[in-house]
Design goal:
alpha+beta, Aminopeptidase, six-stranded mixed β-sheet, 21% helix, globular, binds coenzyme A
């Protein structure tokens, strides 16, 4: 059975700082994340995003991932830009972004996930 999402917890010495989530229940996968406010500004979101992107583009074989953030949270946009996301505009009051891994620039790989590795 395919998963509808992967959630990665960001744990530092047993302390849960936040989570990042890869949503697979839509035509193009999407990324979201949230961190405790008392640990902002230390690079944790950037690190968590990079790790879940590696899962998405690596093991899951995704060819595109979308993301969005509220315009009142520019730090979140900065996290996405640092990860390589490209701004695509605005939708429903959110700034929207997309990211494709370099090797899929020509749309060479399928989004289809291997059911033997995606778990249930
Ligand atoms: C977005 C969020 C996860 C940031 O986490 P974080 O661990 O502080 O982020 P990082 O430290 O990895 O990076 C923050 C970047 O934003 C920059 N930044 C901080 N405040 C900023 C501001 N007001 N304007 C522009 N950039 C800002 C920082 O300088 C840093 O960039 P740099 O490394 O180039 O200096 C946190 O704000 C959050 O949980 N917000 C609520 C949920 C949310 O917005 N989720 C995203 C949509 S799903």
């Amino acid at each position: 059975m395919d998963r509808s999402a992967y959630v990665l917890g960001l744990d530092l010495d047993g302390d849960l700082l936040g989570i990042t989530k890869l949503h697979l229940d839509r035509p193009v996968a999407a990324l979201s994340y949230i961190l405790r406010a008392d640990v902002w500004g230390k690079g944790h979101a950037t690190e968590a995003v990079r790790r879940i992107l590696a899962l998405g583009f690596g093991r899951l074989g995704l060819t595109e991932i979308h993301a969005k953030h509220h315009p009142d949270n520019p730090a979140s946009g900065r996290v996405l830009l640092k990860a390589g996301f490209v701004p695509t505009g605005e939708h429903a009051g959110f700034n929207t972004y997309t990211l494709r891994p370099p090797q899929t620039a020509g749309g060479l790989r399928s989004r289809t996930r291997d059911p033997t590795t995606s778990g249930g």
